[in-house]
Design a protein that fits this description.
Blueprint lengths: L7 H9 L8 H21 L1 H4 L7 E2 L5 E2 L1 H16 L3 E6 L6 E2 L3 H4 L3 E9 L10 E9 L20 E9 L3 E7 L2 E8 L4 E6 L10 E3 L10 H16 L5 E2 L5 H11 L2 E4 L10 E2 H14 L3 E3 L16 E2 L1 E4 L1 H21 L1
Parallel strand pairs: 3-5, 11-12, 11-13
Antiparallel strand pairs: 1-2, 3-4, 5-6, 6-7, 7-8, 8-9, 9-10, 13-17, 14-16, 15-17
This protein binds 6-O-phosphono-alpha-D-fructofuranose (P6P).
The site of 6-O-phosphono-alpha-D-fructofuranose has 9 residues, from α7.
């Protein structure tokens, strides 16, 4: 009988063998996040029984309606991470402030975790794909003491690992370390994430652009020109480019990572600093895409180089195939140069 596919734990053990001095803390964290994800998957897949996809009238720090699924997923991640021996504290989209796990065991942990427990939950009551996004930093404060905000306000380039779980047609956990990006598909028969997408690389170019086009008249002129350049190309070569927009970041970026393309969420009138969160949405994906050979900018800077000032700060995001994001950056740089010549 052919042996089953490598599980997440077996994969982590194979990685640990390469680093005899590793403490195993990072592997513990990934296992705990995987456990929380399996429980979240379980309640989503039994929505008929749990009713978890309905709405509440509570609003979170961002003023967005909190859904029972957001609350459940947040509590689940907080619980497993607090009980793990590898996490000194967390920052969550659903929590106003960082949560410090101030006890002897957790104070000795090397890592802190940032997460968006359920991204795209506004789509969940019509059965659309949602996801969990996480980033893991090595703390910069001394172990043995409680972690602090300094441990969280690190640029994305300092991430040790980042990943997401996509609850879609199948449930997958994709995570990156500096060694590479790997995808694991949940096998409900054995309750394990199994290696299904080893060494994921983002194609240098793609034929899909992903943007909420209802805002296009709100975008900067060069972003509009970049989008129109693809539409014009389609006049000469019908069907070369196409548009896909789920409105759930994890779904749109998972497709972009695997198939190539570009995802754009520019600043708009009602989101002058961009809508997406730097620390627990954009940085984890920027890290994943860079390790996979892709690219992520805020229009002029690399996302991973941004020095954060606040846990919940927002940023514009342009992310995807390296050649496409590079081409967009030339459009934007030209506008800046043209703007400076006019001033
Ligand atoms: P819009 C979902 O609410 C979310 O935070 C991301 O998952 C998604 O990419 C974005 O907002 C969609 O925003 O304004 O296009 O509905």
């Amino acid at each position: 009988m052919k042996p089953g596919k490598m599980t997440l734990d077996e994969f982590r053990l194979s990685e640990l063998r390469l680093y005899p001095n590793a403490t195993g803390e990072l592997s513990n964290l990934l296992r705990e996040i995987g456990l929380a994800a399996k429980r979240i998957y379980s309640v989503i897949s039994r929505n008929g029984e749990t009713g978890i996809l309905s709405s509440t009238n509570i609003r979170n720090t961002s003023g967005e309606i909190v859904k029972p699924l957001d609350q459940y997923a947040n509590e689940e991640l907080l619980t497993v991470l607090k009980h793990s021996l590898s996490c000194a504290g967390v920052a969550s989209e659903e929590e106003e402030n960082i949560l410090v796990f101030d006890n002897k065991a957790n104070n000795n942990s090397q890592y802190v975790v940032m997460f968006d427990p359920i991204d795209g939950s506004s789509n969940s009551n019509n059965c659309m794909t949602v996801g969990t996004i996480f980033g893991i930093y090595r703390r910069c404060t001394k172990t043995g003491t409680p972690c602090s905000i300094k441990d969280f306000l690190q640029p994305g380039r300092h991430l040790v690992a980042a990943g997401y779980i996509i609850y879609g047609v199948s449930t997958m956990m994709v995570y990156a370390t500096k060694r590479g990006v790997n995808g694991f598909t949940l096998d409900p028969a054995i309750g394990e994430f199994c290696l299904s997408h080893p060494k994921i690389c983002c194609p240098d170019v793609g034929r899909i652009y992903s943007v909420n086009e209802s805002n296009i008249l709100n975008f900067g002129v060069t972003v509009r020109q970049y989008i129109e350049s693809m539409q014009q190309y389609n006049v000469a070569y019908p069907g070369f480019f196409t548009a896909r927009y789920v409105g759930s970041m994890v779904a749109d970026l998972h497709r972009t990572l695997l198939e190539g393309g570009i995802f754009l969420y520019p600043a708009t009138e009602d989101h002058q600093d961009g809508k997406l969160r730097l620390m627990y949405e954009c940085n984890p994906f920027a890290f994943i895409f860079e390790v996979a050979g892709g690219m992520a900018i805020d229009g002029c800077r690399e996302i991973l180089s941004i020095i954060p000032a606040r846990v919940h700060q927002r940023t514009p995001l342009f992310i995807g195939s390296r050649d496409m994001v590079t081409q967009l950056s030339y459009f934007v740089k030209y506008e800046n140069r043209a703007g400076s010549r006019r001033s």
